[in-house]
Amino acid sequence: MFLQRLNLIRCPSSRLTSNLLVFKQPGRGLQQIRRHKPNCAVPTASPVFLCSDGRAADLRVVPTIISPMNAGPVLRQRGHHFHTSSPVRALPVSVLWMVLKPLQKLMAVILGRSIRKWWRALPANRQQLMREWTWQHRWHLAAWSGLAVMILFLFLLTHLDQSPVTGRTRLLVFNKDSFMELTALTSEKYMEEFAELLVPAADPRHQVVERVVQHLAQRNKDIPEVSDVTWNVHVVHSPDVNAFVLPNGEVFMFTGMLEAVADVHQLTIVLGHEMAHAMLGHTAEQASLSHVVDLLSLILLTAIWAMCPRDSLALLGQWVQNKLSQLIFSRPYSRTLEAEADQVGLQLAAKACADVRAGPVFWQQMEIRDQMSGGPIVPEWLSTHPSHKNRSNQLDRLIPQALDLRESCVCPALPPTDPRSTFSKSVRVLLESPQTHVRGGPKGPQSTHWPDKQESPHTGLPAALFAQTLLPPSLNVGQESEGMIPPTGPELAVAARVPCEGGGYKQAVQS
After folding, report:
1. Cα within 13 Å of Cα(324), Cβ side
2. Beta carbons of 227 and 217 less than 8 angstroms apart
3. β-sheet bridge partners, residue 161
4. Could you tell me which residues are beta bridge partners of residue 83?
């Protein structure tokens, strides 16, 4: 037996352990005797070993700088390697749920169908014995069912949360970190999907959206859910009237939506609505409800496949169960979240000094656009969004509060002409005019030409998006040939504001 001292250095760069005193017996490996204090000075000479026969043992420590993706430190003894494997990180719960969600229904169908076949294979006397056993133990089964319901209730109770800004109580099953990882994957998917359709950053359409988004973020920086997010803009060249914002701040605006808005005020309200979805965490909230409803639906789905005598009836029952789940839970809840985003988005636009009276006008425009397009109109109870008319009426009721919030933020005075009355007169003129204002084509009417709406000849955008006088100086957008016009002179006095109490802004004193 010989005794040897092994100098293992523990340093931040090498991530090794402290000094060990080890001994070796014939036929046995290295064994630890005691641990010495760590010494962070890397030895320049080879380690010193004390052997019984005076021979030197060739045992060396090779320190290596370890990255999170590499293996751990390696010990080499005469050609033998000892190493530790790097830790493997588990998938987020939200990602696992998305992967396993389709398999859950399949397993429920297989389980229910297996129970039905097993029951049919039992003799009549065995079936009768099973019925009698179930009836005799009905109170025990009821107690276990009640316990399961109690556990589910406690689970839901411990996952309740309050929505920011509105304070509404909601259910959140996924934590923010794990859901953000899923959001990053979704963002990458969208970037790959729209890679060839993205408008360059130098395009005036991208510049308009970029400036409005940054202005909304700046004017609402007193809200942590807004100031803690980096907002990135992506304009997609597509005729779809759509826009959405991911929870990680990735803004996707379609050029079809830019053509649908009449001015920057409407664009600000639309972007405020989409940013409200992100800051309120509606995506995680909707996924949490879907997760709970799906788990409960698995029990019902298993029962349907177990009790229906034929597979065709089971498929019909599964279809009915899916539709009822959407009509009772998913779609009404989605409409609730849309209404909340309308309310909060109007507040964000009010603090950004936009003309909030343009909000109801936008949804009136969308309603007329749908009517003149000739397409089928889906009833509200079948849709995930409120109807255009109801959204316009809701924003109309919120206008007085939004105007008070706008005034508390020391915004410039609005023009005396109300856009709502102006739009009503324009619609009346449009309906009374014998000429058509609808652009026709081989597939029918495509879009509506409003009497007071002009388009930029190069971008197809409403010229009002580039009109400097439509917004406060802090949100003015230059014309296409001039780019953005920075505020100068007296405009700086309006642009310089700091957060005020209650979420508003107050005028800052300029020296």
Report:
1. 9
2. yes
3. 170
4. 74
User: What b-and-e string marks burial along 413-422, b requiring 16 or more CB atoms within 10 Å of the CB?
Assistant: ebeeeebbee
Alpha-carbon distance of 258 to 245, in angstroms, equals 15
What tens digit of pLDDT does each residue of 309-353 get?
999 999 999 999 999 999 999 999 999 999 999 999 999 999 999
Task: Check residue 97 and give its pLDDT.
Answer: 64
Burial status of residue 257 (CB atoms within 10 A of its CB: 0-12, 13-18, 19 or more): buried
**Closest to 460 measured CA to CA, from 473, 474, 446, 472:** 446
Residues marked as catalytic: 274
Give all strands (DSSP E) within 42-191, no chain letters: 59-62, 74-77, 80-83, 160-162, 169-171
Q: Give dist(CA 112, CA 298) in Å, integer.
A: 10
Amino acid at 325: S
Read off the tokens for 35. 């641990």
Contact 498, 291 (CB under 8 A): no
Q: By percentage, how much of the chain surpasses pLDDT 90?
A: 54
Dihedral, CA atoms, 13, 14, 18, 21, nearest 10 degrees?
-150
The dihedral formed by the CA atoms of 321, 326, 328 and 329, expressed in degrees to the nearest 10: 120
The DSSP H or E segment spanning 364 is helix 358-373
Segment 248-305, tens digit of pLDDT:
999 999 999 999 999 999 999 999 999 999 999 999 999 899 888 988 899 999 999 9
Other CB atoms within a 10 A radius of the CB of residue 232 amount to 15
Looking at residue 428, its pLDDT comes to: 85
Q: Which residue in this structure is represented by tokens 């539709």? A: 323
Quick one: angle between helices 138-157 and 124-136, nearest 10? 60
State the Rg of the chain over Cα. 33
Amino acid occupying residue 4: Q
Structural contact between residues 245 and 277, judged by C-beta atoms closer than 8 angstroms: yes
**Contact call for residues 292 and 171 (beta carbons, < 8 A):** yes
pLDDT over 90 at 60, yes or no = no
Q: Report the alpha-carbon distance of residue 29 to residue 84 in Å, rounded.
A: 17
- Looking at residue 91, its pLDDT comes to 56
- Tokens representing 214 are 């940054």
SS3 50: coil
Between the two ends of the chain, the Cα-to-Cα distance in Å is 85
Question: Mind giving me the DSSP string for 320-353?
Answer: HHHHHHIIIIIHHHHHHHHHHHHHHHHHHHHHTT
Distance (Å, rounded) from C-alpha 49 to C-alpha 43? 14
pTM: 0.70
Poorest-confidence range of 27-31, 102-106, 351-355? 27-31
- Phi then psi for residue 498, to 5 deg, are -120, 160
Which H helix or E strand runs over 244?
strand 243-245
- Which residues lie across from 505 on neighbouring strands? 499
